[in-house]
Specification:
The complex is a heterodimer of chains A (about 170) and B (about 425). Helix content of chain A is about 30%, strand content about 20%. Chain A has about 170 residues and is an alpha/beta fold. Classes of the chains: A alpha/beta (about 170), B alpha/beta (about 425).
């Protein structure tokens, strides 16, 4: 199982789409690792630099609604995976992106709007996910804990290390 | 309690309930293209699992970048080509026979009412037009589909979208779906099925229904779906005539998939489109939509007619109505990509291609082309394109470029005017 937690990157906008996460021109790569330098390359947000320290050090992303909308490209998940980001926390996700995260044994955690607001207000330097207690633990000047719910199938996918391992055993 | 068409399809393909909220379905058709499949193929090979669950249920095409533009895309094409040969996949479409997946596969009769369909492509929702459940998936779902013939989904929730009224002159399925997306927003249908019903849908051709379902994903939907009827049966007749004694028999059989009168919906929306104007997007999200008149005069550099949304024969015919006897404005580049070789051939036979060329358009081979800026037709920074495609995301057709989504008629009118203009004045 992957490790879930660490330095946190805040992406303060709804509807961040897959083309912003990984532009289509890089879909010609045939290895996941080759995607590494291009994470969030086309995302335009005030104060955000794709090659900046915050993005490069991040292990967790916190964002708003409908993250990952648009294309079905799993490259949008792999580019996070190869950059060691295994958790995205948001108010909601696009269906395919969310499924792709769990299919790769990664976490797409949904929190209520008020909790997301609180995270953006506090901007903790680090967030850790406790999968036993179903809690997002924000560590910073003031620590805070947010509970989330995880469907048993999604949890099984994370524990199995992804959908291929799960399905190969079961079907 | 009654069932929706999607609930009936799920029940007929049920394999497992891995949780109370998830269903694993048996898949009838697994479709593959050269962008999202090669990594799955490579992974299966590395794991020593290079096999397919049923080669007759797998369809593959090279469509996104074709002919290959460089070594990387040539490698992607080769991986898919070699795999299709190695696995005995007969329905594989390469140069000379290839076209945009969501136009080509329906044309071949691969999608039937009641089917389950997946592809590593978000616009797979197009095939719901046939009364199928068709969903875009990521590469891992595709990989498991190839290997095991199954895919997981959440228990379906459906939004019933009833479209009433009479389609005004100059207004098409594209305008209707842009209007619906504007109303629902880009997340209004997330993780649901959009079931399109009502007299406007019933009167639509299969091509128009495909345009309608194609953009369901832009509101976040898993699939768009239309109820299979006479229009569906007539389109599929060459492929199903061995199965049914008559078209009426096929229609009667298809009706078993229709949603029950007491089916339960998560939401019901009603639209009357009798006074709808041609619709055009203005921002970087497909729900940023205005009446064409509000955007009139917006400068454009390129016009693109093609894609899985609007590269079919009826789209070319509508655009050609405006282009016949006219030329595109100075300084504007016109690009036409007929979506499949059959469409290209028929457009030639009808004299449409000649009309496009006489107007000053360049005609490319069937390909996804400019739509996602991966091969030809890329915009330079600061340029704008009047496009019949499905996404206007920032950078979609090239870094710094702006895409205005619209119908083929509106795009053709923009080509002639050199800026966005009301196409109804050309009719």
């Amino acid at each position: 199982m992957k490790a879930f937690g660490g330095a946190t990157l805040f992406l303060d906008r709804n509807d961040i789409n897959t083309d912003e996460i990984i532009p289509a021109k890089y879909l010609t790569e045939n290895s996941k690792l080759a995607l590494k330098p291009y994470m969030l390359e086309d995302l335009r947000l005030p104060g955000f630099e794709p090659a900046g320290e915050a993005a490069q050090q991040a292990k967790v992303i916190v964002t708003r609604q409908n993250f990952g909308c648009g294309s079905s490209r799993e490259h949008a998940v792999w580019v996070f995976e190869v950059n060691d980001i295994n958790v995205v926390i948001g108010e909601s996700f696009a269906r395919i992106f969310r499924q792709n995260m769990f299919n790769c044994g990664m976490l797409a955690i949904e929190l209520p709007a008020a909790d997301i607001e609180a995270l953006f207000a506090a901007r903790p330097a680090e967030i850790v996910v406790d999968l036993e207690k179903n809690q997002v633990v924000a560590k910073g000047t003031s620590s805070a804990v947010f509970s989330f719910s995880l469907n048993s199938f999604d949890r099984d996918l994370v524990l199995a290390g992804g959908w291929l391992a799960y399905a190969d055993k079961k079907y | 309690m009654g069932q929706t068409i999607t609930e009936k399809i799920f029940a007929a393909h049920h394999r497992d309930n891995p949780s109370g909220d998830n269903v694993v379905l048996d898949i009838d058709v697994v479709m593959c293209h050269e962008i999202t499949t090669p990594i799955a193929i490579n992974d299966l090979m590395e794991r020593g699992m290079d096999r397919v669950f049923d080669p007759t249920k797998i369809k593959a095409v090279i469509d996104h970048v074709t002919p290959s533009k460089d070594s990387k895309t040539a490698t992607q094409a080769k991986i898919l080509r070699d795999w299709a040969r190695r696995q005995g996949i007969k329905d594989f479409f390469d140069i000379g026979a290839n076209g945009v997946c969501h136009a080509l596969f329906p044309e071949k009769g691969f999608i039937r009412p009641g089917y389950t369909v997946i592809m590593g492509d978000s616009h797979t929702c197009t095939h719901g037009a046939f009364g199928a459940f068709a969903a875009g998936v990521g590469t891992t779902d595709l990989e498991v589909g190839i290997l095991k013939g199954v895919c997981s989904f959440r228990t379906p929730q459906t939004i019933k979208v009833t479209i009433n009224g009479v389609m005004p002159a100059g207004v098409y399925a594209k305008d209707v779906i842009l209007h619906i997306i504007k109303t629902l927003t880009v997340k209004g249908a997330t993780d649901t099925i959009m079931e399109f019903v009502g007299p406007v849908v019933e009167a639509m051709t299969m091509e128009s229904r495909m345009t309608l379902c194609n953009m369901a994903i832009e509101a976040g939907a898993t699939c768009g779906v239309c109820l299979p009827d006479r229009v569906t049966a007539e389109y599929l007749w060459p492929f199903i005539k061995g199965q049914y004694g008559s078209i009426d028999q096929a229609i009667a059989d298809f009706a078993k998939w229709h949603s029950d009168a007491d089916a339960v919906y998560a939401q019901e929306l009603n639209f009357d489109i009798s006074t709808l104007a041609p619709q055009v997007t203005y921002g970087y999200k497909p729900d940023e939509v205005k009446d064409v008149t509000e955007l009139a005069g917006t400068r454009i550099d390129q016009v693109y007619i093609g894609s899985c949304t609007n590269g079919r024969l009826e789209d070319l015919r509508e655009a050609a109505r405006v282009l016949a006897g006219r030329t595109i404005a100075p300084g504007v580049r016109g690009i036409l990509s007929p979506a499949t070789p059959a469409i290209y051939n028929q457009a030639l036979a009808e004299g449409l291609i000649q009309q496009f060329m006489a107007a000053g358009f360049c005609v490319t081979n069937p390909t996804c082309g400019a739509c996602l800026g991966m091969s030809n037709g890329v915009l330079a920074a600061g340029e704008a394109c009047a496009s019949t495609t499905n996404r206007n995301f920032n950078g979609r057709m090239g870094k710094g470029g702006m895409v205005h989504l619209m119908s083929p008629l509106t795009a053709a009118a923009a080509a002639v005017a050199g800026s966005i203009t009301d196409p109804r004045t050309f009719l």
